[in-house]
Amino acid sequence: MANNLTPVIHIEQGLIRGQIVDNLKDGEYWVFQGIPYAEPPLRELRFKDPVLPKCWTGIFKANVQHECCVCHDFFDSKEIIGTEDCLYLDIHTPKDVINIANQDHLKPVIVLITGVFTSKSIYNYETFLKNDVIFVNIHYRTGILGFLSFEDDNLQISGNAGLKDITMALNWINVNISKFGGDRNNVTVLGIGLGASYAHLISMTPKGKNLFNKLILISGSAILPWTSYKKRTDLIAEKLDCNCNEEYNMYKKLQSLTSRQLIETFSDVENLYSVPVIEKKYLQNAIITEDPTFLLTEGKYQHLPIMIGYGSNEALLLEKFQTEITPDTNNYELFVTPEFNVKRGTRLCKEIGKEIKQFYYGESLPSKSDLETYHRLITDIFVFRGIDSTVKIIKKKSRKSLFLFQFSTNGRWNLYKNLKNISHNGACYPDLIGYLFKYPEHPIVENDSMEERIHSQLVTMFCNFVKTKDPKAIEDDSLPIKWYPVTKKDYNYIEISDNLLLKTNPGKKTCDFWDDLNTYVKSRSFK
Fold first, then answer.
1. pLDDT tens per residue across span 51-70
2. Could you tell me whether strands 182-192 and 214-218 are parallel, antiparallel, or unpaired per DSSP bridges?
């Protein structure tokens, strides 16, 4: 890394200076790290809505990379990483892009909202910068620090602080990005995993309107099964040995714990505290006040061009789902997803569970020896079903372009499979990160290898979409096929495996089964 510093830039909070990094093969780029977009959410601000940052005097040295919010490492669940003081963002720009005198050549901006937090270095933005875009990475509160909610308005913890962090960061970008050479009118949010669901949710809220104009969603949407939007003070009370009606006492106990103790206390139900909630409409800072499924179905949201995709075997992430479903379960009610809105233990729930079991296993019983079927079931329940429903609902209401992809590449850069030593077929979304960002510790391969080719094709398609709303709008010999959007008539998608393959109707038999089952359950519910 070079010792050279960038020119001083005047933003809303004051003067700022970054670093010039020279480890690009083709030259240099500029990076501004650790820019505060909100006040540190500490002490009395813990769990609360974010507060706008104060201005500073002198020149702010944006050369310190801040950690993510305190949480378990994505790749090592025994390790706790991060810090509670996490509301910062990083900006990566091509060399000499900052020309305050010339606002006619501002560059497209990608804002990363990731759900994969780790102490490992897995994000490398160099190839994106070579494609003439600016890359911004946002840190925000996750888990119980970002999504704790109480009913008592006096506590001022209505929930969704993490979503409000992201929204505040997007507002900051909207105000300041032109000073870094970025076009505030050409901002694409790239959400990964949980971050994709959060990004989709924010696009459906009034507070997210006009902050970005395109979405790339990887293995997440606002209506995946885990996004149940239910407050879980009952679980908090159980963990803290409190009465669930004594919210003030719960709050005081939570405040007495260190951030690390918080993570340790709720580690076995961590995913339940990453779930947004529906807030009361009269609250001034509320961000989600209606059921996102209703908003999506009714088309009551900001219609944007979208790229959306998923891994062919998301069940590789089984430990992240914290599900009760085991490979040899005989409790088929566990297969019944929230979309059916039926109570466990009822005759209808048992009937639905048996239908799902029959579709996946036939006359056979679930078994540890049949992990292939088990992985297909878990992938469909937790990811694919939600992605499929999202795509179908959007195309009924929106005229904006919608591109769908499935990632199934098996290779030397499958990040998650390599780090976890997994040999099963297929890929999950952290595997895609390995190819999209060409993580710094990736195995060295030949220049003409499949891995290098897939990496180049992915970045090219993503950047084309960012620039033009079409992954193949710009002619490029490296892209051998035309990627057609999903339409009301044609359910097009591409499969990204060892090659790019244009296909139609992903998992048609599976989709038809779930759609028919949903229709049947609704007909029973109205009787």
1. 999 999 999 999 988 999 99
2. parallel
